[in-house]
Specification:
This protein is α+β, with helices and mostly antiparallel strands. About 25% of the residues lie in helices and about 30% in strands. A hairpin with a 5-residue loop joins strand 2 and strand 3. It starts with 8 loop residues before the first helix and ends with a helix.
């Protein structure tokens, strides 16, 4: 595995623009932060039994992190010469296939600092290397760390929801930092397509 926190230059430029304009509204799309629970239609795919926290971006696209795919890697294993990384004891989770060598940090906060973006109520994500470094240095045990992320083009997630590929739940910081992990989290949340999910059946 390539030991780098840096995705492509274009990716970071895009994230910089996202952070700068994250307060803009996205009309006509899924604008609330939500938790996606893979339906039976995902069986056998890369996303089989996944639980994903997702937020919208100003252009109508979405990004987020798979919550229940822990890896065997610790942050300090990935970055053995990084003093801040040595403070982090928990394992990194596989966040998704986009920029799979980049490390992101999700922590509890209602205010996004420099290099961070509001992911959901009570949650922010550190996107750029300096912001991730600050989380590891200042609150190493109060964050979750992800390799890679999930990303959808504008309207792509809405189409997947319309095809009943995901069940939707309210975004909850306790799901991100709760005791359940792995397949257990998916089993805990799995339910027939109803309730909140039906609210988001988009035409």
């Amino acid at each position: 595995m390539k030991q780098s926190r840096f995705p492509t230059v274009l990716f970071w430029l895009a994230l910089a623009a996202i952070v700068a304009y994250s307060s803009l509204a996205v009309a006509g799309t899924l604008t609330e932060s939500v938790v996606l629970v893979a339906s039976s239609r995902q069986e056998g795919s890369l996303y089989d039994q996944t639980v994903v926290i997702v937020t919208a971006l100003p252009d109508g696209s979405h990004f987020g992190f798979i919550l229940n795919r822990p890896t065997r890697f610790e942050v300090q294993t990935l970055f053995p010469k990084d003093e801040a990384a040595s403070k982090v004891k928990e394992r990194v989770s596989f966040g998704g296939p986009t920029s799979p060598t980049a490390v992101f940090a999700v922590t509890r906060s209602d205010v996004a600092a420099d290099g961070q973006l509001q992911l959901a109520p009570g949650l922010v994500v550190a996107l750029d290397p300096a912001a991730v470094e600050a989380v590891m240095r200042d609150t190493p045990s109060d964050a979750r760390y992800f390799l890679g992320l999930m990303a959808w083009e504008p309207d792509e997630l809405e189409q997947e929801i319309a095809q009943s590929m995901w069940e939707l739940h309210h975004a909850d910081a306790n799901l991100v930092f709760g005791a359940a992990s792995g397949r257990g989290l998916w089993s805990q949340l799995r339910a027939p397509m109803a309730g909140l999910s039906s609210r988001w059946r988009l035409l």
